[in-house]
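Predict structure. Chain length: 280.
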Amino acid sequence: MALSTAVDSPTTQETLEVLGDAFHNFSWEQLGALAGLTVACLVVIRVTVNLMDRAMERAKMDRGVRTFLRSGLRVTLWMVTVCVLLGYLGVPMTSLVALLSVLGLAVSLAIQGTLSNLAGGIMLLTAHPFSAGDFVEAGGVSGTVSEVGLVYTKLNTADNKVVYVPNGDISGKTIVNYSAEDKRRVELTFSTSYDAKPETVKDCILQCIGQHPLTFATPEPMARVSAYGDNAIEYIVRCWCATEDYWQVYFDLQEQVKAAFDAAGVEMTYPHVNVHIVEQ
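Prediction complete.
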């Protein structure tokens, strides 16, 4: 509606009339001058873009950001070039600017979702919350970052699916980067019978951690009683390993601690009810 109103406005009609008169009275001298002005504008565009490329390269900007800024600069310079050429033809700048403003508003409303993702992509490329190869949880999806684009981020999930997440969804929510640090803490919970001595249980757990080749001795592993449940005593276990070895250590300890409990006679209980019958 706004666009059609702008086309029918007096300023737009005036612009079209001026353009018609200019082309009707066009001469070879004006054509030569217009061609020379066009060539000069093209040279200015090329020199300006090259200077910006060198500046961004010296600043070591991300490739995606450089591409976006270069494209934005080109569009801006081309718009200025069109205004200069139309101004040479005698088109009033006020009406031309009004027309371009309305057109820009209409385009921005039509692609506002894309612009939101584009803004999110610029934020991700400048803030660097993650890089290609990191395992992250972002936008409700967990996976390894394959590519960070201006509009979408490409993730490879653990079950070998490729997911394209809009950058607007990522930048507006919490991002968890599991690969940012070189080591991670493995945290496990075990439940044993009240008949098992806590010292025996903790010795079994710490022995399994100490014998595992991928766990770290520092920070020191920990195994402590965390709660007394209705049917069992709960133990919390914490140890550290390299980030890339997290899941290997996690699953190995689950299996090895159970084997150690069986060898030591420690029972891992499950919910149950003991009924005591008293004869009178």
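Summary: The first strand starts at residue 135 and ends at 138.
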